[in-house]
Design a protein that fits this description.
By secondary structure, the chain is mainly alpha-helical. 68% of the residues lie in helices and 0% in strands.
Length: 155
Amino acid sequence: MEPMEGNSLMQLLNNRIFWVCVMAWFVAQAAKVVLTLAVERRLDFRRFFGLGGMPSSHSAVVTALAVGVGIRSGFNSTLFAIACVLAVITMTDAAGVRRAAGKQAAMINKIVQDMIQNGGDLPNETLKELLGHTPLQVLVGALLGAVIAVLMLGL
């Protein structure tokens, strides 16, 4: 790996696709705070850095990346194909494996609490349940990412 040149940081700061991805993440995470306030009537800033929930920020970021690369490099380019495959893998994982892990965590938490209530000597530790996304959360995140890419880069 070659050492970073003095202008590498400037190149990153001027990379429009990078900023499209940052904006997609920011908007998706901010939406989680707003939706928590609207639905649960509580202001929870921890949702800004939390996993899971509506919309999927993972989906927003990778879709913004794919659409941004498509706009800049062409939708028939190798770079777009790579970004698109990355997006599909990420969204499949968010709605599949990570969602299943969250469901398993919820079940384990329930079993542990039941055992503790029945006199079991177990650590009272709770596993994180909000890990993955429903297909709707993934879809909304993907649409959000695509819209942000188009708004910031044009089509």
